[in-house]
Amino acid sequence: MKRTVPLAIAAVTGFVLIVSYFIPYTQSWGEEAMIWFDILAAVAFVLGGGNLLKTHLQKISNRRAGWGFSIVTVSAFLITLYIGFSKMGVNPAEKFPEFSWSGDYLTESGGFGWIYHHIYLPLAATMFSLLAFYIASAAFRAFRAKNTEALILLGTAFVVLFGRTHAGIYVSQPVVDWLTAISGAEAGSLAGLRLDRITSTITSIFVLAGNRAITIGIALGIVSLSLKVLLGIDRSYLGSEE
Amino acid sequence: MTDRVSFRVPLLAITIALAGLAPQPARAEAEPDAKAAQQTTAPQPPADVTAIDRPDDAGDGIIVKWTLSKDDVKEVTEGKTRKVVRYEILRRESQEDKFTLAGEATFQKSSFVDPQCDRTMSYLYQIVAVEHEDSKSLAVQSAVAITPILQYWDTRRTWFLVILVLICGAVILFIQLAKSGMSLKVRKIAGLEAVEEAVGRATEMGRSCLFIPGILDINDMQTVAGITVLSRVAGLAAEYDATLEVPTSRSLVMTTARETVQAAYLGAGRPDAYNEDNIYYLTDEQFGYVAGVTGTMVRDKPAACFYMGAFFAESLILAETGNSIGAIQIAGTAMPSQLPFFVAACDYTLIGEEFFAASAYLSGEAHQLASLKGQDVGKVIGGGLIIVGCLVASAASLLGGDDTLAHSIVSFLTDNVLGDKGFLP
């Protein structure tokens, strides 16, 4: 029973979504199914918030490694929650000027908006900026010319990276001009050898072809797994019957 | 007295009437002048307004078409402003008197889709070419009222359904064949073979395993695929008595993961070793989640890291942090843009379809493995269409012209099977 009911819900919802894709009359059914999921996810957020508090309070209570960070997490969570719910600092809406809490809680003048714009966004941007350093370190490892394949990868990466800069055009244009002059070819006929053009050929033909092959494989994988989930052949995500 | 009053009243009335009438001829003259002036400055109206039912919809759309105003030119000469800036599309239900604004279209647009119609009503449309609020053309009306029609089948998606039925049919057929005892051979997937090695290594080192099920919710197929892999990893962790930690970025994924891991521990005969506190929620926010997970990695130094699900910009931050702590790393995702990052930073990467095959592969059950054979049929269909398409397109290009058989086949394939009206609507 514990697995049958969720399986039935998943199967019915899945088939409704498939049918709504092909039959215009049932389009709204699919939209409604997704709204139900959104409601479910919103309610489940309470579970997540509760779990966050429980995990970190336990950590603080047991003085486990890094419990100081847990104090910061719990404090930040509760303060943000309070400011968000109380709409602290929010200007009233034009329609209801007598109610101080009637304005949008996300406005920058409000406490929640201020936290979002002046604390959350800079912190997120800091984390995101780490990516630049990690790309450099990962590229350093990936482009080591250990064998023929790695050498081809390195060469291609060099052409693509260099071809995307102005320097790529600046350096390769004289070479193309020189080749045109010595071969006696028509002016402009060898322009395809310029680094930016080679980059364009690599990305729009070779990379695109590989990407499409991966995408076709992904689409087939999704069809197969979805079918197994809908038909109840793969139930490993449902937990046990007990 | 009475006589005088009675005489004065009509006199006053006549005087007032004359006074009131006196300026009127002047105004009456002025109005045609203003109208004429407006007509000379206002844009020319559009023509041939027609309204048709939008095909393949639930009876809620009407397409309105018109011929552009003569003043709506493609290129405006330098120094001049555009005479027609936009078109206003006005609509009225057939039993109503007044037209109301249904939408607007920019210059050089000769059609508009009205998506908010009721299939029990009939509608009439008017189009007005607009230069600015005080300079509008005369309204041109559609000849007949149109009623939107409910279609029971979206014909644009017929080919998509045909291909879907073929692939699903092949999957089901191979599952049935496997159940009846047909032997199957599936190639080895190095990344999945390494799962046992990774969990075993973590056990030997006395360190934990970290499983990241992506950052999307459970309604995404990649998350479901990740959870199915988690089931097998948890089974191995239970068997080897290794600690498995699963930080999630969605509450529903946390609950699902808990159920799955608990079932796996139960299946391995170790229900007592299951600790639900090891599967916890961090935050929905992408980089907040990354900060939390990388913090755990640096502090706890897990020996094995699994990244199975949907990832975005955080993929490389996670994988490089894992690499820096010396963990054995196995990743699987269907996000093509993140695959290079995982390939560069992880020991093994499940690319696209391998990731979705993981559950069947790790289960080792014949009927699950058979679904992979069904996928192969899909590849054969896809490959066949690509080869036919390339050959016919090359032939059409070599033969030239627009009316050759090869050209017709290419048009049919691109428009009906693959294009806007087919596989990729």
Describe the protein's architecture and organization.
The complex is a heterodimer of chains A (about 240) and B (about 425). Chain A is about 75% helix and about 0% strand. Chain A is an all-alpha fold. The longest helix of chain A is centred in the C-terminal third of the chain and has 36 residues, at about 195-230. The termini of chain A are close together. The model of chain A has no long low-confidence stretch (mean pLDDT about 90). Chain B has a six-stranded parallel sheet, sandwiched between helices. In chain B, strands 3, 4, 6, 7 and 8 form a five-stranded antiparallel sheet that branches. Chain B has three domains: about 45-140, Immunoglobulin-like (Sandwich), CATH 2.60.40; about 160-170 and about 370-420, no CATH class; about 185-365, Rossmann fold (3-Layer(aba) Sandwich), CATH 3.40.50. Residues about 1-35 of chain B have low confidence and may be disordered. Chain B has twelve helices and 14 strands. Chain B is elongated and about 85 Å long. In chain B, helix 3 packs antiparallel against helix 11 (about 365-400), helix 4 crosses helix 5 (about 220-240) and helix 7 packs parallel to helix 8. The chains are: A mainly alpha (about 240), B alpha/beta (about 425). At the A-B interface, helix 2, helix 4 and helix 7 of A face helix 3, helix 5, helix 6, helix 7 and helix 8 of B.
In sequence order, what are the helices and strands of chain B, one letter per element?
HHEEEEEEEEHHEHEHEHEHEHEHHH
Structural class of chain A: mainly alpha
What topology, given as strand order, has the largest sheet of chain B?
A: 11-10-9-12-13-14
User: What's the helical proportion of residues of chain B?
Assistant: 40-55%
Structural class of chain B: alpha/beta
Q: Would you count the extended β strands of chain A for me?
A: 0
How confident overall, as mean pLDDT of chain B? 87
Tell me the CATH architecture of the largest domain in chain B.
3-Layer(aba) Sandwich
The parts of chain A where pLDDT drops under 50 for at least 5 residues are none
**Proportion of strand residues of chain B:** 15-25%
Distance N to C terminus of chain A: 9 Å
H-E order of chain A: HHHHHHH
Unreliable runs of chain B: 1-34
Number of domains of chain B: 3
Quaternary structure annotation: heterodimer
